[in-house]
Amino acid sequence: MASSSSQPTDHRRKWDREEYEKLAAQRIRKEKEGDEDDFLLPSKRELLKQRDYKVDLESRLGKSVVITKTTPAAQGAGYYCNVCDCIVKDSINFLDHINGKKHQRNLGMSMKVERSSVEQVKKRFEALKKKKEEKTKEYDLTERIQELKEEEEKLREYRREKRKEKKRKFNEVDKSDHNDDNDDMAAMMGFSGFGSSKK
């Protein structure tokens, strides 16, 4: 097929370099003047910091909820992020989302972490060391062995009582049902008993 003279042979898009250079210059000028819409430069964002609240992943676990077309997104299925106004279907993806770049940017934070000084690290180690010492009780070996023996004895006693109680209940139910059934069966069949040697 022969191409007509009115159609160009090059099908590639032609970029107007002058126009894009003007747009780039405008953007640079706006950034220098501080005329930004809702876009914050990473240098002006807050540094990443530790969350001061506990993430609630378990409050709605195992509960059934009826969801209709008019149900608000926050009460729908999955985990709702009110910062980003989105729903994430499972807990792992929700944790990934709230630790991710998009969520942190919406909170006004960059993904950069503040560098800790040597003094801050030493203070942190001291605080953790004190916390650990408060938690652990000083145990004497014989004292610890004695406590373990007492706990084991209590557990054995509890299990023994449970078994006895279970046996007692079973015997009461078994006796009442067994006697009635045996008497009825014997009467139906026409003899006085089943002739067991145990009495």
From TrEMBL:
Its main location: nucleus. It is found in: Nucleus. PROSITE patterns: ZF_MATRIN. One of its GO terms (cellular component) is spliceosomal complex. This is Zinc finger matrin-type protein. InterPro entries: Matrin/U1-C_Znf_C2H2 (IPR000690), Matrin/U1-like-C_Znf_C2H2 (IPR003604), Snu23 (IPR040107), Znf_C2H2_jaz (IPR022755), Znf_C2H2_sf (IPR036236). It holds the Pfam family zf-C2H2_jaz. One of its GO terms (biological process) is mRNA splicing, via spliceosome. Gene3D superfamilies: Classic Zinc Finger. GO terms for molecular function: DNA binding; zinc ion binding. Keywords: DNA-binding, Metal-binding, Nucleus, Zinc, Zinc-finger. Residues 159-199 are annotated as: Disordered. Residues 170-179 have a biased composition (Basic and acidic residues).
